[in-house]
Amino acid sequence: MTKPLNVAMIGYGFMGKAHSNAYRKVAQFFPELEYRPTLKCLCARNEEKARPFAETWGYESIESDWRRLIERDDIDLIDIGSPNDTHKDIAIAAAEAGKWVVCEKPIAMSSEEAEAMTLAVEKAGVPNMVWFNYRRVPAISLAKQLVDEERIGRPFHYRATYLQDWTIAEDVPQGGQTLWRLDVNVAGSGVTGDLLAHSIDTAMWLNGPIVKVTADTETFIKERVHQETGKKQPVGIDDACMFLARFSNGSMGTFESTRYARGRKNYNTFELNGADGSVHFDLEDPQYLDFFEHTQKQSGKKVEDHLTGWRRIHVTNFEHPYMDKWWVPGCTVGYEHTFIHALADFLQGVTSGTGTQPDFRNAWQTQKVCDKVLESAKTGKWVETGVEM
């Protein structure tokens, strides 16, 4: 017997659309799930602008105040898709009201906020998750499977890049409803929290805790007009960030992110090199995982012949992560499917009682690294992250 799950979505931007699609589709492609989401309420400050979105996606009602939303008895789950500076207050209030809580990344403006949110959901005992959806790209999940199967062996190097180009122009404003990611008072940071949080989460999922970092950042355009005031004011976010990392397993890491890489729209890559093999992934070609096998898992023998080389795996077969839920082999899935996968895992974790990752405590660890990256960029020194081992 299935159970209804009444969902309230806070925010109706890009992430609101991605999450709403997941709630709409998850039961069709994961019919074994016990819970069936219902789009009960959309919450946004501007009810007039939110109404077309609510009608398009089939939300039954609209609220303009998230506090009233949390007080409602007909809401089971609060999904926080609003700007970063709102996450803490909403999450804590929702947890104290006994609601399930899922939240967009980065989890908070700082690790102190993330800690408070984590302690609140754990004290309340409510299911919780943070939408680091890239873990649910089938090829990235396959990379995790290869690591867990010890096909990479002892890790030596991890390198990640996350490049975009949408803020290069000097006349791009900051702040307001559409460009809050460029306003430090709302976003908390620039590419570090917005892009590198994804890279850090993936890296620690695949390769373990990052224990210390040294970083440098740059803000290329120092002043921008604020959309709400119309006045030019200093830009407080980082346009670019590079950092070196050491993992708890002894391996080394390099991370680079910028919004000033002309021609790069959402170029998110990683490569992990180990004693027995390597994996490489590129989000702009997401149906493939590149794998180099140096030592065969079954025999323990080194692969040394005229066919040694990188193997490109088309991750669409039924034995690949999540792919038995979709089409026939050879037919790819896309960005929107990663949110459906994340939601399915979350709902299954609630049913089984095992929970799912990344939860708030896990995302708090990623926030610690982000904070220490920014701290190191200011001091020019190596900084220990304090990530839980």
Mean of pLDDT: 96
| Principal-axis shape | globular
Helix content: 25-40%
Number of structural units classed as domains: 2
Main sheet overview: 9 strands, mixed
Q: Which superfamily, in CATH terms, is the homologous superfamily of the largest domain?
A: Dihydrodipicolinate Reductase, domain 2
Describe the protein in words:
This protein is of the alpha/beta class. The chain has two domains: 3-133, 3-Layer(aba) Sandwich (Rossmann fold); 136-384, Dihydrodipicolinate Reductase, domain 2. Helix content is 33%, strand content 25%. The protein is built from ten helices and 17 strands. The strands form three sheets. A nine-stranded mixed sheet has the order 16-15-14-13-7-12-11-8-17. A hairpin with a 2-residue loop joins strand 13 (267-274) and strand 14. Helix 4 (87-96) runs parallel beside helix 5 (111-124), helix 6 packs parallel to helix 8 (191-207) and helix 8 (191-207) packs across helix 10 (360-379). The chain is globular, with a radius of gyration of 21 Å. The two termini are 40 Å apart. The model has no long low-confidence stretch (mean pLDDT 96).
